[in-house]
Amino acid sequence: MHTSLPIRKVFEGVATRHDMYRMFNRHRGDPATAAGDAGHLFAGEWFEIAERDHNYMFEILPPLFMRGDMFAMREYLTGSITSVFLALSIDGRRRFFHGYCDLSELGSPERLKVSIIERESRPVRAMTREERLEHIWSSTHDDYRGYAGVGGKRTVLVYGETSGTIEKALDALSDDEISAKLPVHLRYLPDAIAA
């Protein structure tokens, strides 16, 4: 029996092609990836991309499936996890997204689509603490992030005025440390209530 993993936004804004490819590999170095068991890391992750990148990915290989506003890549990332690309109309604007779905879960692509539309239709632009942390992880260079301990806890380098640069667990960052690591245009967005 499969347990659905949470569907979560991992990057705020429209990813550049460079960002997109970095996020395809955002779990490189995780012990689960090395062990070939990274499905739980990727399943449910999504982010916005540009139309040209959506179209480029469509032309790489014949898709595994096409359903009106979405298609899946023929190559699986791991197990039954593959990339799904979506072209959605949200608030009268056509937008493009990439997400990972576990195709062994019935309805996984549709749940991803519904979650994206629900999240992106909010009247006020805001981010949850988890979205802020995911954005930091996605946008931090590999040299400044890593994994620590037996469980592979995600870490990032932070600068402390008295302690200098130290490695700190991503989920243990203070609000001030989160703000310092976010781009200026994202620092002062209001907190969103997690759905």
TrEMBL record:
Highest taxon of source: Bacteria
Entry protein name: DUF1419 domain-containing protein
Record-linked Pfam families: DUF1419
